[in-house]
Amino acid sequence: LLVENMLYRPLIDMNILAIEKYEDQFVYLTNNAVLSNSWAGKFYIEHSLKDPKQFVVAHDFTTLVAGTGELALFQDSKRAWSKSLTNFDPINLIFDKKGKRFLILTEDAVYQLKCPEKELSKVFEAKNLTAMTLFNDKIVLGTDYGILSLDGKTFKADEINQKLPWTEITTVNNINGSLWVGSAKGAFKFRKDGKYDYYASKRWLVDDEVIDITEGPDNSVTILTSTGLSNINFVAMTLAKKAEYFQKIQRLRHIRYGLTADLTLRTPGDVSTGYYHDTDNDGLWTSMYLAGELFRYAVTKSEDAKQNAYEAFEAMERLTDITELNGFPSRSYERDGYELGLGSNGFSEEWRKEYVAKHGRIWRPSSDGRWRWKSSTSSDESCGHFFVYALFAEIAPDKEWRDRAIHQIKIEMDHIIDNDWYLVDWNGKPTAWGKWNPDYVNSFPINVGDRRLNSTLILAFLQTAYKFTGDKKYKKEAQKLIKKYGYDENATRPASVIGYVEGEALSDGWNHSDDEMYFLTIPAFVNYSFDEEQKKKHFAAAKSHWEEERSEKNPVWNFLYAMTGGKDYDLNESVWWLKEFPMDLIGWSVTNSHRKDLIRIEKNFRNQEYTEVLPGDERPLHLHNGAYRNNGGGNGTREYAPYLYLFPYWAGRYVEAIGAAETE
The whole model's pTM is what? Predict the structure, then answer.
């Protein structure tokens, strides 16, 4: 919030035209004078220019003032030189201490005023110049069509740079050895590798129309835009410290009845106005946070991590208890009358109305009448459950709790087996996505991802159940699916077979939610294989999928792949992802479609837009199933849960890819 500074009352009555800093003190230009409140208020120059626009203070308070059609140089507060110019409208003035000269920018030229000779000359001409700074012995010029760099001595221009996030440049500045640029669509900083750090959207700025950029306090950068002032703070921290920061937010604002929850904000950007909102996949998101806490406990033996894990487990356990359907897990639960998510993920409002008309509400009453649980559970939820219950059974230190996790594995597996390989809802019918029956799975051509995915999932579920219960019926059922229905053949096909199949509704593009399910499943799919030969085949299939996904640089995929025994899990890319994950978890709308620095690729099945995935702090915030989402996002009314960072970070610690003191 910008407010008027009224500390110095005399300034309120002055028409301040420009502000500059000299020796870290503010100096002001008014219609009549250049003055400051520093130095006991003694610095005062009565400039007498008719239409003053810009000024700069050099050594020993030597000051150049520029106005429409004239320049004036002042030494010891007296006019020492002046010049009248036609068609002269100054935009920016710089004092080049090294070159002992002033540089003056207008819309169509750069002038040089040598000191102490007081010789003025026009050294460069171009159209639509907008900004100027000195950087690495170059004079850097902003234009409304890109950036020009002039040799500091010869004034010869390099080829114009238009491969920028945006080419309509409004300001340029050298801040602590880095070149910062403001544009009509955000700010960006030049990197040493020739790319840019891009700062746009309300994640970074009040608005994207940048007016000026300057060095701020304490290693920050201050950016003035058309409607406000933004301060970007650069704080060095380890990945571990970043995890501590997110853990505090997770515990403070993202736990609902023990489940992981997003926060809906009544006022955009204001977390103090937030309230919990149920989702279709509360079990899945909770499983990821729970997994992160299990990994943290395994690495640190933290009592806090153990208690958080037990709390989350108990919340997930209730997802099946509340339905009273013998191992059928609900999507979520809420006190009766307070449920919010009325629909079901992946379906239209028309579908919801038709479903309710035929079957009744998706939210079902609990037997005590005090709660509602959300039905129509999908395979996503089952993946999260089997994944984290297996981890829990391996890592939790207390046998009583481990046995509870094994019980959950057993009852959920038995539900699927007893219902002919379906998740069967309260109405006695299979849910839309909880289907592993051979008639369904093998109805798809081999190129449709669901055939491979669902075969992988159900085999991994059965392997998990056999691993922890020792009950041979699970191995027997798996062998039946393998030998009679070809599920192992389906599951061990390389991921490269997945592609477009005309006429298949589930084959119009690569499904990144399927990736999420797949990678959560591969630790069990590989590690709980029935024999070494099968394990080798399962690992090869998992690796083929990881190879397809490597370009996303997602540490969840990489570290879960490492859990299967993968050695080449792209540590550097994973650390890059964790570093670039934004500290601000609010879902702001972000746009990258205008950027001219990115190399676009042809439209493709994977929906990848650019040659490289963008860093997380330049994209809309999204879940792990939202790869390559470069545009869109929310209106600032949602804060995402921090498990998005905590899960992959602690997975990396668990597989010993990341050390406790991994630095920036």
Answer: 0.94
